[in-house]
């Protein structure tokens, strides 16, 4: 979606956004604190909110048309169209299901009455399975919990047939495990079906797991726009909030966020007896192993074949389900401890040999940036530990943390 120039001035908010949404690169995240204007932005995109015309601003950007924003989709321009014609579907925070209909009837209603529904690439059976709502189909939607409503809401949006889905805090009522599964689903759908998503979230971790690009909005203004990796790296190394958000006097919601790393894991092997899954850190040549909680795959490995710290001999590292053979995880920097020696005599399951690439003092803590097989891992340690270990740039250390 190119050429997005928005200037809204109405009774409740001055929203001024001048950007393009690089949807073809992946999912776009929108971050900002409460009241920043995120939902208003989505409503404008979906033609559900009118913006006041400000011709001078539009002209400045080469726009002569009497339009507040331009959505260009497949070479067609959508200016001031009615919501029905707009290629963007807004999935609001509240599910707004028909309370007197069952879950299945709510889904069938979309297929029957949405003008776009014939374009949906999915069957109703597929979305039911993907969203994990098989057991809810005959329930009246009024009886659903908040998390269940959000699952059904997503299923309904997928069936709607519109190519761009705007998700306003879609998983806020779900636990972290369920959230990560649905975030992976969005990534998969974006990649496989070229379905485009803009997702509003209060959690940078959530956006790290799904988006390629993040817009940060504060007080109606776009204060940051950049690749997710760059933005999170900037956040992580900032010694104060004002450093993160140079365009605004406020902190844009960053102050509530913890520092974290995002790691890509591959080749899962279920250790069903231990309720763990063993993964490899991707792209490396050392076969470093990482353990996560729960047994996620269909392949299991027998007791006694463990070899912590390296791949066990003869271990077949293929998974039957290709979709689950790669996984992004986040790891809070304050959950990682460092040691100079490999210490396997501990309950910590994860031990990674790593190289120190950066040391940043942040208030009373030290943020140590590590390179582990090309991936970045952050460890937040105390000044005392830093002093005791006498860590230096370029040194090799061992990072330890419990199963993720
Ligand atoms: N219909 C309305 N009438 C009056 N004020 C409104 C209306 N809609 C939004 N606002 C105000 O506009 C501002 C931006 O609201 P918006 O819902 O876009 O914020 P947000 O970033 O999505 O917040 P949250 O994260 O809490 O959902 C808020 O101050 C809100 O109170």
UniProtKB/TrEMBL annotation:
Protein's organism: Psychrosphaera saromensis
Ranges where the Mop domain occurs: 345-404
InterPro entries xref list: AAA+_ATPase, ABC_transporter-like_ATP-bd, ABC_transporter-like_CS, Mo/tungstate-bd_C_term_dom, Molybdenum_import_ModC, Mop_domain, P-loop_NTPase, Transp-assoc_OB_typ1
Signal peptide bounds: none
Protein name according to UniProt: ABC transporter domain-containing protein
Keywords: ATP-binding, Cell membrane, Membrane, Molybdenum, Nucleotide-binding, Translocase, Transport
GO biological-process terms attached to the record: molybdate ion transport
Pfam families assigned to the protein according to its UniProt record, in alphabetical order: ABC_tran (PF00005), TOBE (PF03459)
ABC transporter domain segment(s): 1-244
Keyword Membrane: yes
Residue span of region Disordered: 296-319
GO function terms (MF aspect): ATP binding; ATP hydrolysis activity
């Amino acid at each position: 979606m190119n050429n997005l120039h928005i200037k809204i001035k109405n009774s409740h908010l001055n929203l001024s956004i001048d950007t393009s949404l690089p949807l073809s690169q992946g999912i776009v995240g929108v971050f900002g604190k409460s009241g920043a204007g995120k939902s208003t932005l989505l409503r404008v995109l979906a033609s559900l909110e009118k913006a006041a015309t400000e011709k001078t601003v539009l002209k400045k950007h080469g726009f002569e048309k009497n339009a507040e924003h331009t959505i260009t989709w497949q070479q067609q321009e959508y200016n001031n169209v009615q919501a029905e014609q707009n290629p963007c579907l807004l999935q609001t925070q509240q599910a707004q299901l028909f309370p007197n209909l069952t879950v299945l009837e709510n889904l069938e209603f979309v297929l029957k009455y949405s003008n776009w529904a014939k374009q949906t690439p999915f069957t109703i059976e597929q979305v039911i399975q993907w969203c994990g709502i098989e057991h809810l189909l005959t329930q009246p939607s009024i009886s659903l919990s908040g998390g269940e409503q959000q699952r059904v809401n997503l299923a309904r949006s997928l069936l709607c047939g519109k190519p761009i889905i705007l998700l306003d805090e879609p998983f806020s009522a779900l636990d972290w495990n369920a959230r990560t599964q649905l975030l992976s689903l969005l990534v998969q759908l974006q990649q496989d079906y070229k379905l485009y998503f803009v997702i509003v979230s209060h959690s940078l971790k959530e956006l790290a797991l799904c988006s390629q690009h993040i817009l940060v909005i504060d007080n109606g203004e776009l204060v940051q726009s950049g690749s997710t990796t760059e933005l999170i790296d900037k956040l992580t190394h900032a010694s104060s909030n004002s450093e993160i958000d140079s365009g605004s006097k406020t902190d844009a919601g960053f102050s509530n966020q913890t520092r974290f790393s995002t790691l890509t894991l591959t080749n899962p092997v279920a250790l069903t007896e231990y309720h763990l899954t063993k993964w490899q850190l991707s792209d490396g040549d050392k076969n470093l192993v990482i353990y996560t909680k729960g047994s996620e795959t269909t392949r299991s490995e027998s007791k006694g074949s463990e070899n912590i710290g390296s791949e066990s001999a003869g271990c077949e590292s293929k998974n039957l389900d290709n979709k689950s053979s790669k996984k992004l995880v986040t790891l809070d920097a304050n959950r990682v401890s460092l040691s100079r020696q490999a210490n396997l005599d501990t309950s910590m399951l994860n031990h990674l040999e790593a190289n120190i690439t950066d040391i940043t003092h942040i208030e009373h803590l030290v943020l140590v940036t590590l390179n582990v097989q090309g991936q970045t891992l952050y460890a937040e340690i105390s000044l005392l530990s830093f002093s005791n270990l006498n860590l230096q740039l370029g040194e090799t250390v061992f990072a330890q943390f419990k199963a993720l």
